[in-house]
């Protein structure tokens, strides 16, 4: 298996965007937010983060390929937070039929390579609490939890 990244094309972006917004809204619902609020959040966040689509400065969307065939996607951005510059992973997805073969780990390592290439000293991300598969992957790669946001409906 040889995983690599290549920039997403306009056609791929157009196909990805509605699916990504739906998936994000679904994740927010699963985290306990009412569906209408989750959809409103997705409809507000994506245009704010990607106002110029693929041409948005500081945002990079890639197709993850295995031996030249698309198997997923990676969305990263350069951000500055309390500890300085970081490459923030907004999304990393391996297509269902390609999961379980180490491609998620490979995609994360490619994100780290991208940070080094851009001379960005840290990689950061957010993961929803119920996503144990992703959390375990990130832990296995040496990522540590900085905060845990919790909620209870009463």
Can you put this structure into words, describing what you see?
It is a single chain. This protein starts with a strand and ends in a 14-residue tail after the last helix. By secondary structure, the chain is α+β, with helices and mostly antiparallel strands. The chain has one domain (3-140): Aminopeptidase, CATH 3.40.630.30. The protein has helices at residues 10-30, 35-49, 103-117, 132-140, and strands at residues 3-7, 59-66, 69-81, 84-94, 123-125. A five-stranded mixed sheet has the order 1-2-3-4-5, with helices on one face. 39% of the residues lie in helices and 26% in strands. The protein is built from four helices and five strands, in the order βααβββαβα.
Secondary structure layout:
Blueprint (H helix, E strand, L loop, with lengths): L2 E5 L2 H21 L4 H15 L9 E8 L2 E13 L2 E11 L8 H15 L5 E3 L6 H9 L14
Parallel strand pairs: 4-5
Antiparallel strand pairs: 1-2, 2-3, 3-4
Helix pairs in contact: 1-2
Q: What string, H for helix and E for strand, traces the elements in order? A: EHHEEEHEH
Number of strands: 5
Question: What's the architecture, going by CATH?
Answer: 3-Layer(aba) Sandwich
Number of domains: 1
The low-confidence runs, each spanning 5 or more residues with pLDDT under 50, are none
Short key terms for the protein model shown above:
Aminopeptidase, 39% helix, five-stranded mixed sheet, alpha+beta, 154 residues, 26% strand
């Amino acid at each position: 298996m040889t995983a690599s990244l290549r920039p997403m094309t306009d056609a791929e972006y157009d196909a990805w965007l509605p699916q990504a917004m739906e998936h994000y809204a679904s994740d927010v619902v699963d985290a306990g937010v009412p569906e209408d609020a989750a959809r409103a959040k997705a409809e507000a966040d994506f245009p704010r983060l990607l106002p110029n689509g693929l041409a948005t400065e500081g945002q990079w969307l890639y197709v993850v390929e295995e031996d030249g065939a698309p198997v997923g996607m990676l969305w990263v951005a350069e951000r500055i937070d309390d500890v300085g510059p970081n490459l923030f992973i907004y999304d990393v997805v391996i297509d269902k039929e390609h999961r379980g073969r180490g491609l998620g780990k490979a995609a994360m390592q490619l994100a780290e390579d991208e940070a080094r290439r851009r001379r960005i000293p840290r990689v950061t991300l957010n993961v929803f609490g119920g996503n144990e598969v992703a959390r375990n992957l990130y832990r296995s790669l040496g990522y540590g939890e900085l905060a845990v946001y919790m909620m209870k409906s009463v």
